[in-house]
């Protein structure tokens, strides 16, 4: 169900339209099939995350019993307080990142456009790392500072960076090249600030900051699930409706105007949507790298689409993040590495394989 | 540095439109100004430092090293970092032009090809497996990592049915960067001794490098500059699109391979000498393009001194900004250079490749 149709008549007899009131989408069987396949993979990963995640094996029947309200206290704790929040956070954060990447790459028409290159992710990192390093002392961040300070720092930093990028690239309209260049400059600045701040601190705080900057699901709890779920609940429908303008924007600003798209408003709205998704994801799990860049490109290639399909990108992002978290928890068993290490280890070879496999030049 | 070919020698592809006297004058003046600026930056880099030396004294010991304190400061501290700064800046500026043109992407910097992360992985593996801690021991590892990473990226990008295109190069490079970055993160998170070295190495600095480091990387940079010069006419043709370039008799695959080899050599050597310095490879090509227009035979020779000026100016600023302590050149470049770059972008002085 790729909302990719510009409000122009589809080629006769080729694509069927899905209509809901004033809205319409193009029906693409291949995209729908790919989305269902990824959904199935996601479900499998989710079941595995609930049953065989750490060294406390529980059968599917035990987990179902717990979910139905049974099980002993230990089992309830393991499933409801450890595994469920972590799996849900992973899936929701991955979906938010994949969706934001699809929007940004579609609007900027540049496969390198992602929250990392546009400054949002690194802006969030500046906020969080400052809290970790300055608020920590040698004993490490604890109590209220760890619970609320680091995520709050991330949200403030990320929104500030996004506002700076939008504000600085606004000059009677947002041209996407200008936006990208300003975004990369802000991103480089924030990244180097993070590196610099990490050399002020002692090694313990530096390691903690490195873990956070890589993106981690260790500290997942129901509060973070709530943050990510609330953001997705509001922004996913908004993005699916708004992304209908992406295909029109791809025809060039003048053609898009001719098709009735308010170009600057559409671009700004889509970017704002993406920025809010990234901020929510970053507050919940840190700036998990690579998902926002890779998920849309993987989805695009699997679907054979011209621009990243938003819903399929979100599902791909969720599957990628959940899969990476299971590698992160299981591969070096006693040592728990952050999930951000493995999103690239899992996703990069797959993306490279798709690049080699591909026979058709995609537009992005 | 680069043979600034005369316009009459335009190879195959049609020459840049508007090749009037005004354009030629602006390019020549731009080049002269940049070279003058570079000379001024180099002189300032020799004169300015934590230890105040009168200019006459610096000049005297530069001609006749006498083994005194001033001589030691100039010859063992200031001269090496100035020379390394020029080499690194010129290499990164040139590589940036090649990178943005081959990927046809205005935000691609040379690091996108996986070069910087390949070098980082080489360094971290050296610390983790071999227990190295000396700067000069890292150089070979960093160069090897950078070359291996970019060779792999090119092989993957060329694996598709249509050979390496701008999109596949960028995507394969970004994927490889992320993969290698993930491996580096995994190692430094498991081994704190590696993190201790890595968190300082990745800032990018010219300080504390002996002149030997320059001699180690100079052959790579020279080879890279030669390949870049050979690549310039081909890039002008590729700018018209792969299909048109092929129709014009350009061997697209060979041109891409030459460009990627040049990028790998230049960036790998620069990263090995000074750590991953961002921003130069992004900003210098845009500055050069704003002055020279889209002709690569002029962009490349302008981007090299522009990059060198940026690195030296940032290094000098890092020395004076905090009194006794220093701020690393990579930090200064990103933190002070980014607002400057944004101001230029806002004034509309930048054009996309």
UniProtKB/TrEMBL annotation, chain A:
<keyword id="KW-1133">Transmembrane helix</keyword>
<feature type="transmembrane region" description="Helical">
    <location>
        <begin position="32"/>
        <end position="53"/>
    </location>
</feature>
<feature type="transmembrane region" description="Helical">
    <location>
        <begin position="120"/>
        <end position="142"/>
    </location>
</feature>
<feature type="transmembrane region" description="Helical">
    <location>
        <begin position="179"/>
        <end position="198"/>
    </location>
</feature>
<feature type="transmembrane region" description="Helical">
    <location>
        <begin position="337"/>
        <end position="357"/>
    </location>
</feature>
<keyword id="KW-0812">Transmembrane</keyword>
<feature type="transmembrane region" description="Helical">
    <location>
        <begin position="225"/>
        <end position="247"/>
    </location>
</feature>
<feature type="transmembrane region" description="Helical">
    <location>
        <begin position="148"/>
        <end position="167"/>
    </location>
</feature>
<protein>
    <submittedName>
        <fullName>Iron chelate uptake ABC transporter family permease subunit</fullName>
    </submittedName>
</protein>
<dbReference type="InterPro" id="IPR000522">
    <property type="entry name" value="ABC_transptr_permease_BtuC"/>
</dbReference>
<dbReference type="InterPro" id="IPR037294">
    <property type="entry name" value="ABC_BtuC-like"/>
</dbReference>
<feature type="transmembrane region" description="Helical">
    <location>
        <begin position="87"/>
        <end position="108"/>
    </location>
</feature>
<dbReference type="Pfam" id="PF01032">
    <property type="entry name" value="FecCD"/>
</dbReference>
<feature type="transmembrane region" description="Helical">
    <location>
        <begin position="268"/>
        <end position="292"/>
    </location>
</feature>
<keyword id="KW-0472">Membrane</keyword>
<keyword id="KW-0813">Transport</keyword>
<keyword id="KW-1003">Cell membrane</keyword>
<comment type="similarity">
    <text>Belongs to the binding-protein-dependent transport system permease family. FecCD subfamily.</text>
</comment>
């Amino acid at each position: 169900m790729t909302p990719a149709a510009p409000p122009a008549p589809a080629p006769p007899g080729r694509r069927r339209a899905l209509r809901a009131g004033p809205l319409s989408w193009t029906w693409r069987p291949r995209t729908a099939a790919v989305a269902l396949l990824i959904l199935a993979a996601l479900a499998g990963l989710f079941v595995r995350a609930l049953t065989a995640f750490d060294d406390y094996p529980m059968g599917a029947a035990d987990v179902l019993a717990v979910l139905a309200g049974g099980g002993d206290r230990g089992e309830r704790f393991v499933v409801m307080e450890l595994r469920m929040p972590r799996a849900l956070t992973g899936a929701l954060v991955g979906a938010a990142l994949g969706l934001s990447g699809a929007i940004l790459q579609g609007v900027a028409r540049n496969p390198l456009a992602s929250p990392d290159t546009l400054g949002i992710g690194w802006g969030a990192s500046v906020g969080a790392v400052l809290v970790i390093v300055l608020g920590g002392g040698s004993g490490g961040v604890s109590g209220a500072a760890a619970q609320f300070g680091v995520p709050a720092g991330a949200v403030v930093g990320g929104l500030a960076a996004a506002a700076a990028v939008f504000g600085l690239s606004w000059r009677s309209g947002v041209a996407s090249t200008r936006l990208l260049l300003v975004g990369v400059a802000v991103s480089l600045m924030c990244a180097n600030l993070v590196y610099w701040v990490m050399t002020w601190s002692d090694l313990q705080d530096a390691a903690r900051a490195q873990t956070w900057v890589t993106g981690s699901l260790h500290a997942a709890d129901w509060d973070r699930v709530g943050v990510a779920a609330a953001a997705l609940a509001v922004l996913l429908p908004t993005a699916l409706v708004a992304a209908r303008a992406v295909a029109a924007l791809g025809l060039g600003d003048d053609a898009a105007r001719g098709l009735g798209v308010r170009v600057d408003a559409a671009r700004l709205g889509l970017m704002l949507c993406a920025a809010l998704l990234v901020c929510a994801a970053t507050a919940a799990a840190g700036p998990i790298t690579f998902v926002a860049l890779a998920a849309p490109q993987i989805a695009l290639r699997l679907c054979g689409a011209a621009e990243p399909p938003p819903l399929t990108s979100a599902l791909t992002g969720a599957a990628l993040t959940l899969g990476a978290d299971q590698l992160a928890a299981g591969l070096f068993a006693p040592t728990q590495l952050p999930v951000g290490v493995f999103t690239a280890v899992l996703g990069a070879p797959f993306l490279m394989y798709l690049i080699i496999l591909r026979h058709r030049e995609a537009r992005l | 540095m680069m043979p600034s070919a005369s316009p009459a020698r335009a190879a195959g592809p049609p020459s840049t439109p508007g090749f009037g006297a005004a354009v030629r004058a602006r390019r020549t003046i731009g080049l002269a100004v940049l070279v003058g600026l570079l000379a001024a930056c180099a002189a300032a880099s020799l004169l300015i430092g934590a230890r105040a030396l009168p200019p006459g004294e610096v000049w005297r010991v530069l001609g006749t090293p006498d083994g005194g304190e001033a001589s030691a400061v100039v010859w063992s501290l200031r001269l090496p970092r100035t020379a390394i700064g020029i080499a690194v800046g010129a290499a990164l500026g040139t590589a940036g032009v090649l990178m943005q043109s081959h990927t046809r992407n205005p935000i691609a910097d040379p690091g996108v090809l996986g070069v910087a992360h390949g070098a980082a992985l080489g360094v971290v593996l050296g610390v983790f497996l071999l227990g190295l801690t000396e700067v000069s021991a890292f150089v070979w590892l960093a160069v090897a990592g950078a070359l291996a990473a970019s060779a792999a990226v090119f092989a993957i990008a060329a694996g598709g049915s249509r050979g390496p295109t701008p999109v596949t190069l960028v995507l394969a490079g970004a994927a490889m960067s992320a993969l290698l970055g993930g491996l580096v993160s995994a190692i430094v998170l498991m081994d704190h001794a590696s993190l201790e070295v890595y968190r300082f190495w990745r800032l990018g600095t010219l300080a504390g490098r002996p002149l030997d480091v320059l001699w180690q990387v100079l052959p790579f940079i020279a080879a890279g500059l030669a390949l870049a010069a050979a690549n310039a006419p081909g890039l002008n043709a590729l700018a018209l699109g792969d299909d048109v370039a092929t129709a014009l008799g350009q061997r697209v695959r060979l041109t891409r391979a030459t460009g990627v080899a040049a990028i790998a050599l230049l960036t790998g050597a620069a990263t090995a000498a000074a750590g991953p310095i961002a921003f130069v490879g992004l900003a210098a090509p845009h500055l050069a393009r704003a002055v020279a227009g889209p002709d690569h035979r002029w962009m490349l020779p302008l981007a090299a001194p522009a990059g060198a000026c940026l690195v030296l100016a940032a290094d000098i600023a890092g020395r004076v900004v905090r009194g006794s302590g220093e701020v690393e050149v990579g930090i200064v470049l990103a933190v002070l250079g980014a607002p400057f770059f944004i101001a230029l972008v806002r004034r509309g002085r930048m054009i996309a490749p």
